[in-house]
Amino acid sequence: MGGWSVFVTGCVWAILLLALFGDSLASAPEFDPYKVLGVSRHASQAEIKKVYKRLAREWHPDKNKSPGAEDMFIKITKSYEILSNEERRANYDRFGQMDENQNFARAPQGFRHFHDSFYFDESFFHFPRTSRDFTESKHLLHYNQYMNEVLPDSFKRPYLIKITSEWCFTCIHIEPVWKDTVLELEPLGVGIGVVDIGYERQLANHLGAHRTPSILGVINGKITFFHYSVVREHLRQFVESLLPQKLVEKVTDNSYLEFLNSWHEENKPRVIMFDVASNIPILYKLTAFAYKDYMRFGYVDMGLTETSQVVQRFNINTYAPTMLLFKENTEKPADVIQARGMKKQIIDEFVSNNRFLLVPRLVNQKLFDELCPVKQFHRRRKYCVLLVTGEGEQFVSVNEAFFDFASSNTKEVLRFAYVYQRKQQTLCDTLLKKDDTTPPQVILLERRSATGRVLYRTVTGGWNGSDDDKHRLHEQLELLQRDPSYLTHDAMLPELNNEFASMFLIQWINTAYDYLAQFYFDLLYSNWREMMPVLSLIFSALFILFGTVIIQAFSDSGEDKPAKQKATDSPKTAESSPGPESTSSRPPKKNFVEVTELTDITYMSNLVRLKPGHINVVLILTDASKQVLLRKFAKEVYSFSGSQTLHYSFLNVDKHSQWMDSLMESAPDARPSDCLDEEEEEEDTTSNKSDYTGHVLALNGHKKYFCLFRPVFTGEEAECSRWSDEDAPTAGPSKASRSRSSSRQKATTLEIHHKLDRLGLWMERLMEGTLPRHYVPAWPGLDTITPQK
């Protein structure tokens, strides 16, 4: 036994040494895209593309029937996918790797050599082959291809896209169902796409696909995920659900006349399909979606008794599907096809050849561009015969005569159309202004550039629909086809108005409904990873909204409480107000503003010895106005009471009248010059003292200056008391004279508390530091505070 264990151990070590230092035991052939395409590592993108096209034509399975052609074509395609993308090419050049979700950090050389040396055949472990077959390779999508081709094309047909990856073993289980679905839906007109999440990470992120396998649909630029079990019937129903609901109208005996006669309002031909099936075939729905801008589609179920009259009316063969196309004449179809096996190619050719009415109305610029294209070559000339007419009954016979003339035309070079002057006023004015004519008129024109340049000529003699008019129009058309220089006028046409723009609101409502339905669908099927950004945005908005409402409610509740004032002569008197205490840096919670009275006791602490940077806001009042002004004062300064640098006091001028006079004398610049002049003029004729009731002072005890608020005029006080510091810069002599004249008119006296109406604005300017400052050499002494006893 011991010898046998030694032998086994030696064999193991021999194998390891050979793996580490030998070239290989059975090395797997390394895939090199440069060798497959036969280009150098420094080849340009143009060279790579040229070689790829040549090899793709040479090894295409449809042309090359050799056994290894399909495998070689897959290698060529995969090599081009790697080298045509700069990022993947750089990854391969640096690390020798091609899958983006692999770790690009280079392993140590010894370990890498060891890994390369041990090659195991996939069949030994029964691993399924992950190489794509040819049918899937032709459906591979790149980001630029999706943005430039698939996205615009999704407005004409729906796309079914599968998200997969190289090592997605779950994708193998759905592969047979996917192939059968592709074989069924692709011939009907459904676009098919495959996105490798390893190679096309950017496209996968754009689509919102973060796991494999995933299946999604794209229509009208909108992405919808498939959430059901991957069954062929479910995928088919999913594609049908992507299409608009009212794309095809079901027609019966009671509704077919209304359906056919509505061509005039929508300016589109009508297509009716007859078949014996309760559900509308998906091929017909896809055709209706592709040509929805040109035609209106209807469906008749010949198996119903409610459709027997319309089937008999048009003599339909019930044994084969039939399509009737109607234009202006609703009694007789303009074209008919009937076949047991309706193919997409047959239907597309049938519909595309009859996209326009015989004489369509120009309702938008897109229709004008397609009906009357710009001249490109001499042999592709298109002349547009345009009738400028109206909508009234007097134009009915004129329009019908033009329709009759156009219906007899068999020349492809001539295109007939008409336009209503009222709805396309600018276009008609441009074409009719040179000849100074009025509708109805027939105009021959040829478009020369996409910017709107045309050559045109008005048919001589006008248009009344008579036989002479028809004969004259026929002669001029023959002359135009022989000599293109017959068109003598040149003009730049404006862009046509979109006559169906009024339907924008309805389209917007339908689009909003589709997005809401998609939101509900994603929420119902727990597509949480895609829905998380939307849900986060919604909850954030709701949180901000309700938070703002709650904060506003709490802040307003304090302001709405009734004011309760208490004025006392104590050193600290609490004056009730709708506001809280003023000694907190945060919005106060107490329901009052603390206002103290300036007396000989509080004078030093509240003014002379006030801390640097602190300001005492002092209200000047009298015994009679004390209660009213204190209540108003507290209400106005409440919003500023949270500042720690503001203090509030009041001064009773009935007790201390000398202090205010002394303060104003020490700062003569505090009074407007016109008030001083007026006082000098009236000094000998009046002995009335200044009324300082309602004045407010902002006193800075440390820097010895104050700011002055003069109350709002109530009709009683002197003229100069109407002024405030915030009005001083803009006040002038003219304003002062108007104030004196209005004072002499003895305006109606207002309530006393209105004196402080503008105090809140003054306080805001005080906090901003924009009020004028009046400096004093020293504060008035105590003798001006306490009266002589």
From TrEMBL:
Domain of life: Eukaryota
Principal place of residence: endoplasmic reticulum
Boundaries of every J domain copy: 32-96
Any one GO biological process: autophagy
Residues that span the membrane, as ranges: 500-521, 533-554
Membrane topology of the entry: Single-pass type IV membrane protein
InterPro entries on file: DnaJ_C16_autophagy_reg, DnaJ_domain, DnaJ_domain_CS, DNAJC16_TRX, J_dom_sf, Thioredoxin-like_sf, Thioredoxin_domain
Compositionally biased tracts (Acidic residues): 675-685
Span list, region Disordered: 559-590, 665-693, 721-749
Biased composition (Polar residues): 570-586
PANTHER family attached to this UniProt entry: DNAJ HOMOLOG SUBFAMILY C MEMBER 16
Role this protein plays: Plays an important role in regulating the size of autophagosomes during the formation process.
Official protein name in the record: DnaJ homolog subfamily C member 16
